[in-house]
Design brief:
The chain has helices spanning about 5-10, 10-20, 25, 60-75, 140-150, and strands spanning about 30-35, 40-45, 80-90, 100-110, 115-120, 125-135, 155-160, 165-170. It contains five helices and eight strands; from the N terminus they run αααββαββββαββ. The protein is globular and about 45 Å long. The protein has one domain: Roll (Thiol Ester Dehydrase, Chain A). It starts with a helix and ends in an 11-residue tail after the last strand.
């Protein structure tokens, strides 16, 4: 059995991988709660920094959650992709929810493109957004992708800027500089 097949048979490992791989979603209080082939569910614990000036969750945060969950659904098929297109419909504001829950379902997966339908709800079950996300399937070996993500870390350092506002300094170690993972 290949590493890819073994990885796909253990969705709990995929969930752990996505929740702990040093991505922006981890730093934005997002996590995957369930996954199966072509489908994933995740949530975001809403914090003050997720809110816009009118007191609802910012649409960009809703989209980030949807993209994270849809990307996980794509990974359940062994597809490593980059978002190439999306259509988002924000049908209700998310006023001060405890959390948002997103479910991504596969519409179609092909060699070049994978498309997912994502519904984002608040903790009361009200639909906040419906988003269709399309990924361009990168020509990356799945085993190399997993090995690279597991061997490198992304650290965030929080500080205050000159106005006393929080700022973030990101430091990546090997993820974006073209280095190959060590064996």
């Amino acid at each position: 059995m290949s590493k890819k097949e073994d990885f796909m048979e253990h969705m709990d490992e995929l969930i752990n991988f996505r929740n702990n791989s040093g991505t922006v979603s981890r730093h934005m209080a997002m996590k995957i709660t369930d996954a199966k082939p072509g489908w994933a569910r995740g949530e975001m614990l809403c914090q003050a920094f997720h809110m816009n000036p009118i007191g609802s969750v910012h649409g960009g945060m809703v989209f980030l959650l949807a993209d994270f969950v849809a990307g996980t659904a794509a990974l359940t098929r062994g597809k490593v992709g980059s978002t190439s297109n999306a259509s988002a419909y924000f049908v209700n504001p998310a006023y001060m929810p405890e959390k948002l829950i997103a479910e991504a379902s596969e519409i179609k997966t092909g060699q070049c493109l994978s498309t997912y339908d994502v519904v984002v709800r608040d903790d009361q079950g009200k639909i906040i957004s419906k988003i269709v996300i399309e990924f361009y399937n990168l020509r990356i070996d799945f085993d190399d992708y997993v090995r690279n993500m597991l061997k490198h870390e992304t650290d965030l350092y929080f500080d205050k800027n000159v106005f006393g506002e929080d700022k973030v300094e990101a430091k990546t170690f090997g993820l974006l500089d073209g280095k190959q993972p060590e064996e």
